[in-house]
Amino acid sequence: MTVYFIGAGPGAADLITVRGRDLLARCMVCLYPGSMTPTDLLAYCVPEAECVDTANLSLDEIAAKLVSAHRAGHDVARLCSGDPSLYSAVAEQARRLEAEGVPYEMVPGVPAFAASAAVLGRELTVPGIGQSLVITRAQARSTAMPDDETLANFARSGATLALHLAINHIERVTEELAEYYGENCPAAVVALATQPGETVVRGTLADIAGQARAAGMTRAATIFVGQVLAAAGFPDSFLYSSTRDRATQPDSL
């Protein structure tokens, strides 16, 4: 049998992929992070499925349940908030499954930064303004960041930033970033994207922290920094230019 690491999306139950929904509907065991995943998603499970909230389980306890379900002959849905490729602890769980000879697959989902950009109504790569996105987080009591992965190093590039797990340190983060982007650089925060209580604030690095605090943002928030958030007067993409020879320059180039 197989363990499926399924991206549950940013929150709204209808933003899980069709593949993820269909797998939920046939797996007899489902492990989900109750503190992050709306229980509306569990409505896709069959009534007789065993659904386990992992919010209070250690990594070893979670892995043990995955292994035992596999050995009992069950496919297992392991829901991950957003997309499994980002901040999901899938790597640690997969390592344990490999050691036990348990097969697994990863099913992508809509990541929080993408859902938040949709809420903002903004493309994060704009011609002539910004063509790179750095997805990172703040360092606090969480796992240490690699030495070279500092906000300062990322900020020196001028790339658009999407910061996860940083809302409770937004004053420190914005103060540090303002040294490189300038206090007038556009910034925005989206909390609980696509979920009840969704909240959005927009401003600059000079005032966004105060706005976020006033709005009561404390969890499930993505902080964006970059000129693309207020881009105007930019050139059209060459991809759709009337001057491009489509016969010799296909869309993939």
UniProtKB/TrEMBL annotation:
<comment type="pathway">
    <text>Cofactor biosynthesis; adenosylcobalamin biosynthesis.</text>
</comment>
<dbReference type="GO" id="GO:0032259">
    <property type="term" value="P:methylation"/>
</dbReference>
<dbReference type="InterPro" id="IPR035996">
    <property type="entry name" value="4pyrrol_Methylase_sf"/>
</dbReference>
<dbReference type="GO" id="GO:0046026">
    <property type="term" value="F:precorrin-4 C11-methyltransferase activity"/>
</dbReference>
<protein>
    <submittedName>
        <fullName>Precorrin-4 C(11)-methyltransferase</fullName>
        <ecNumber>2.1.1.133</ecNumber>
    </submittedName>
</protein>
<dbReference type="Pfam" id="PF00590">
    <property type="entry name" value="TP_methylase"/>
</dbReference>
<comment type="similarity">
    <text>Belongs to the precorrin methyltransferase family.</text>
</comment>
<keyword id="KW-0489">Methyltransferase</keyword>
<dbReference type="InterPro" id="IPR003043">
    <property type="entry name" value="Uropor_MeTrfase_CS"/>
</dbReference>
<keyword id="KW-0169">Cobalamin biosynthesis</keyword>
<feature type="domain" description="Tetrapyrrole methylase">
    <location>
        <begin position="2"/>
        <end position="208"/>
    </location>
</feature>
<keyword id="KW-0949">S-adenosyl-L-methionine</keyword>
<dbReference type="InterPro" id="IPR006362">
    <property type="entry name" value="Cbl_synth_CobM/CibF"/>
</dbReference>
<dbReference type="InterPro" id="IPR014777">
    <property type="entry name" value="4pyrrole_Mease_sub1"/>
</dbReference>
<dbReference type="InterPro" id="IPR014776">
    <property type="entry name" value="4pyrrole_Mease_sub2"/>
</dbReference>
<dbReference type="InterPro" id="IPR050161">
    <property type="entry name" value="Siro_Cobalamin_biosynth"/>
</dbReference>
<dbReference type="InterPro" id="IPR000878">
    <property type="entry name" value="4pyrrol_Mease"/>
</dbReference>
<keyword id="KW-0808">Transferase</keyword>
<dbReference type="GO" id="GO:0009236">
    <property type="term" value="P:cobalamin biosynthetic process"/>
</dbReference>
